[in-house]
Amino acid sequence: MRVAIAGAGLAGLSCAKYLTDAGHTPIVLERRDVLGGKVAAWQDEDGDWYETGLHIFFGAYPNMLQLFKELEIEDRLQWKDHTMIFNQPEKPGTYSRFDFPDLPAPINGIIAILRNNDMLTWSEKIRFGLGLIPAIINGQKYVEQMDQYSFSEWLQRQTIPPRVEKQVFIAMAKALNFINPDEISATVVLTALNRFLQEKNGSKMAFLDGSPTERLCQPLVDYITARGGEVRLNVPVKEFLLNPDQTVQGFLIRGEHGDEVLTADAYVSAMPVDPLKLIMPQPWREMEFFNKLEGLEGVPVINLHLWFDRKLTDIDHLLFSRSPLLSVYADMSNTCREYANPDRSMLELVLAPAKDWIGKSDQDIVAATLEELKKLFPKHFDSDSPAQLLKYHIVKTPRSVYKAIPGRQAHRPSQETPIPNFYLTGDYTMQRYLASMEGAVLSGKLTSQVIVRRHESGGSSQRLFKQVDSKEVVGAG
Ligand SMILES: Cc1cc2nc3c(=O)[nH]c(=O)nc-3n(C[C@H](O)[C@H](O)[C@H](O)COP(=O)(O)OP(=O)(O)OC[C@H]3O[C@@H](n4cnc5c(N)ncnc54)[C@H](O)[C@@H]3O)c2cc1C
């Protein structure tokens, strides 16, 4: 089969990779001149990289880890100590850690929480533990039902003290979906907590050793093209052309010599949900399956890169800033081999929630961030010779991953659609991981699976690929 795929993000590339494994020929069409979508990165005139987002890989990403193995690039993941590090706003320049000992789950997680006495009191830890009991007993079914509540509402319902939200979960909600706990669905936070508590290495983090475009997307492209597939940049899909029976007749694309029609045996949208909605053919909009996509919308986020004249920290890990302006950050000169510099820091920081900042100038954003850095690194900014910013790059994504507010689970579509030769893939499609790199890779694998299944066995439910899955979430067993 020839399969046309619109979008060369991780979902589109993963779908193409698994289609080639099954002996088919994918043609991936990417609108932009760069691979990777939300993991895309660029090199500036000095040769320094800047990225769409600061990206962390977790131990709880089985499909992503298997992909690295299949591509034989596992050595590119730089695993860090099993710990979570939070800034302490009340004590500028200091950190509080949750250190996970080398013991089975959930004991390692429980010990990590119990040993940390900076952020939560004993009574807060106990009240939080008791609040989690329904999730432990009722498992994933309960976690899914909680999609009707925001995480703040869930905490209130479980009578968990508000300080627990302030101390830990503002940082976690911002890291997960770039929004605060009063907006994020309880399902999202509970799902992540379950992964982290149920799997020994679930919360263990790795950084890629360089830019995702070069170090992860390019090996995928090499793999696909070596097996007869194609990946074409600068080729936007402008329209899905339909047959009278509403199946896809072809993709109208902007090719090298103007508009052309690309035909295939099957068609996949690996576009994010926002641009997909824009080019959705009118007859499909009337179908409930496609109509419910109206309930999904990307959330704004901003990624900053700041190069300094000196080393600000030697911490080789992700940090939760616990700042109202910022979410997570890392000194990439420590965490990432290809960005390494023993003398100067390059901080990569995520600014979230970004809705009030996305329209502001780069200068305003940098000025506000530098004010925050004074609190994170007082030693280097409050001295007689404060650290000097050498240069910066800012990447704004006005619509990034879908905003996971309450009720969104019901809007997430399956990879299989009512149109027999058209499929969806992408982190927003239904899969058990959230809007993440793992979710994107898994969705691509699932999409390839349904395409092959429909084609080869006329709809039989037999699974052709192994979906590598971690354990069910807390208590689901
Ligand atoms: C700031 C930031 C930080 C993040 N941090 C993490 C993290 O730490 N860990 C984690 O797991 N995840 C993280 N994510 C999320 C992760 O990047 C995404 O979930 C994932 O990359 C989405 O992949 P995708 O293939 O579904 O979509 P995308 O990457 O958006 O790919 C869609 C592709 O479709 C293309 N396209 C759109 N329209 C057309 C068209 N008409 N024709 C052809 N092509 C088209 C786009 O250009 C794009 O390349 C982060 C995201 C951001 C923005």
From TrEMBL:
GO molecular function: phytoene dehydrogenase activity
Keyword Membrane: yes
The protein's enzyme class: oxidoreductase
Residue intervals passing through the bilayer: none
EC number of this enzyme: 1.3.5.5
Chief location of this protein within or outside the cell: membrane
Taxonomic superkingdom: Bacteria
Subcellular localization, as worded in the UniProt entry: Cell membrane
InterPro entries: Amino_oxidase (IPR002937), FAD/NAD-bd_sf (IPR036188), Phytoene_desaturase (IPR014102), Zeta_carotene_desat/Oxidored (IPR050464)
GO cellular component: plasma membrane
Keywords: Carotenoid biosynthesis, Cell membrane, Herbicide resistance, Membrane, Oxidoreductase
Domain Amine oxidase, chain residue ranges per copy: 10-451
Annotated Pfam families: Amino_oxidase (PF01593)
Keyword Oxidoreductase found: yes
Pathway field: Carotenoid biosynthesis; lycopene biosynthesis
Membrane topology field: Peripheral membrane protein
Required cofactor names: NAD(+); NADP(+); FAD
Single GO biological process annotation from the record: response to herbicide
Xref: NCBIfam families: phytoene_desat
Family as reported in the entry's similarity comment: Belongs to the carotenoid/retinoid oxidoreductase family.
Protein name per UniProt: Phytoene dehydrogenase
